[in-house]
Amino acid sequence: MSVMDMVVVGVILLVISLAVWKIVRDKKRGVKCSGCPDSGKCDCH
């Protein structure tokens, strides 16, 4: 693997980690749909 491949893999892992972290954080706060702009005020599903 070249250095560029490792950088790309690192960036992808970082993005996935941040997305999972945001979903977990929102669920702990009681947000029903983390992607919805009105997630704290609406009945999403």
Descriptive report:
- The chain starts with a helix and ends in a 17-residue tail after the last helix.
- It has 45 residues and is mainly alpha-helical.
- It is built from one helix and no strands.
- Helices cover 58% and strands 0% of the residues.
- The protein is rod-shaped.
Helical segment count: 1
Question: Strand content of the residues, in percent?
Answer: under 5%
Order of helical and strand elements: H
Average pLDDT rating = 85
Helix content: 55-70%
Give the CA-CA distance, first to last residue: 44 Å
Ranges with pLDDT <50 over ≥5 residues? none
Describe the largest sheet. none
Rounded to the nearest angstrom, the radius of gyration is 15 Å
Overall 3D shape:
rod-shaped
The counted number of beta strands is: 0
Class from secondary-structure proportions = mainly alpha
Write the layout of secondary structure elements.
Layout: H1 3-28
List keywords for this structure.
0% strand, mainly alpha, 45 residues, 1 helix
Question: What is shown here, in short?
Answer:
With 45 residues, this protein is an all-alpha fold.
